[in-house]
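Weekly puzzle thread! Below is a chain. First person to post its structure in token form gets bragging rights.
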Amino acid sequence: MAKPVIMLAAGGTGGHIFPALSVGEYLLDHGWTPVFVTDKRGRHMIPDDVKTITISAASPFAARFHLRLWRLFRLGLGLLSSAGSIVFRRPKAVIGFGGYPAVPPVIAAYRLGLPVMLHEQNASMGRANRFLAKRVRLLATSWPDTKGIEPANNTPVIITGTPVRAAFHHIGKDGYTPPEKDKPVRILIVGGSLGAKVFGETVPEAISRLPDDLKKRLQLVHQVRAEQMAEVRARYDKNGINAELTSFIHDMSAEMKQAHLVICRAGASSVAELAAAGRPALLVPYPHAMDNHQTANAQVVHDIGGGWLTPEAEMSAGSLAGKIAALIADPARLTIAANNIIQLAKPDAAKDLAEHIISLTKQEHKS
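Winning reply:
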């Protein structure tokens, strides 16, 4: 007998895809068939053996009128494709994880009368989820007091946190060990699932300005854009820096486990992984993120004392070098931050989200 289907719709970045994958794993282990819906970007982040539907989608916001029309047309194609997939796959429910590729399947499910819920990863609601919120039966958030929720929608709201893989929570349970005097210092530098150009420019320059005795202790793992790889490698080699460069980190939990300090963006998944693992971080929000949601995420971490908000506009090589040197010289400060950020961890987030969407299917069956 075929297992019942639940459809998971997510935008094409890691911040949307990775939480959806975590929920999908739980559903698969508990007698359900997860089917993912995303765009071409998102499809590359989903394992080949996972059932996935790739649709056309785009943000309708553009400066030029003809681009807006084209993007709306692509969303329309995505809506038709999603409706056809729902009729063919016959899911019991749909859960959206934000991003514009989630809009067509959520709208199609709503119009076809299926139970639908949303999950908002960020501390500030994204535009796609704000648009969809009044059309769903349940809204799950990662943070208390998430900005952008319209009370007039009358949609019930629950707080679940952002799902991350169990491996990150295992790291958190093992605790944090700060760098010891004259011993190696491991720094993990990550620019998000799509990379970050500024991290390949400013960070190597900042590292080159550190005191020589500290540079000798460094062991870096740096995610670098492919087009910057040669330049960054040359800069580190010139300064005798022990650095492993990669365009994509396949096992983030393994690298985070060894890190004394993380320098990264402030996407929802990145923050959730840091919290689960209990790792202190310098958070550099992507300044062009929709509605500046990464700054809101980083502010939550900063306010609890779990990391340091570093606006990109203020991240000069000199200032960053000073921050890194000061933190490495103060292991107690790093330990306090690690203990603080882990308070934001939600180890049952994937289970809670999955159980809520399963509950909606049971309510539908009773009615």
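Puzzle host: Confirmed. Bonus trivia for everyone else. The mean pLDDT is 92.
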